[in-house]
Amino acid sequence: MISSAWYFDARILASLTRLHFHDCFVHGCDGSVLLEDSATIKSEKYAKPNKDSLRGFEVVDDIKAAVEKACPGVVSCADILTLASEISVVLAGGPSWKVTYGRRDSLTAYPDEAVNKLPGANEDLSILKYKFSVVGLSEADLVALSGAHTFGRAQCTFVTERLYNYKGGSSYDPSLSYTILIILQQRCPLYGDETVLLNLDHTTPDYFDNKYYTNLQAGEGLLYSDQELLSTYGSSTASIVNDFAGSQDRFFESFAESMIKMGDISPLTGSDGEIRNVCRKVNGS
Known about the structure:
By secondary structure, this protein is mainly alpha-helical. The protein has helices at 2-8, 12-24, 57-70, 77-91, 111-117, 125-134, 139-146, 160-164, 178-187, 211-217, 224-231, 237-246, 248-263; strands at residues 153-155, 197-199. The chain contains 13 helices and 2 strands; from the N terminus they run αααααααβααβαααα. The longest helix is centred in the last third of the chain and has 16 residues, at 248-263.
């Protein structure tokens, strides 16, 4: 099903990978990101970091429907997100890793945590490190998982601050290559359409490789949070960026290890939560 969706939508592999990331960083890998608004639930989908940005929900719905038909009440939505991210990375040319199962689905959503816990595109490295440490992930995990920005897109709204109002001023982020700056300012003019899509990796935008890191070395990271990994003076993350830029194999190995760690963030197991019948709503609603 993911392959079929990819045939019609080049972005879907990155979108499904991002769904898993946004699920796990908010109250653990429990499928809470998939829940819609209801009389008792306020969805995470409409929290600021996710609104008009997360996508791929229909593909998850299709996978869940097929799984329920084959073996009802067995596979959780949280596990589907975990496996879908691994399949997506492999289809895009990236590494494979062993996906464990047994996660259960949450009974509610956590929109306030989505606002506070998800790493932001314009956040300093110190904040990014803190948000990763809160969920048990290291600086090495931060650099490796950020490498998922080797495929996919981002909207101008996540970039305009560093193009025109860097640190609240009236200039641009000096860590950004001037050549790329001009291109981005043409694509994202001040007061222009902030929903215009940009390639996170301008060299191989739909392929999973280590070009994300060589882009950082050239000052061509799209997001401020990306370039921070290399450009922050004295940061230990810089040496990891340079290592991954020099060896795709080392990046792939580290990325796989970090995805396994992320997939184990605070899962619901045993009798906690439930196995949803439909990923968008809790059972019985």
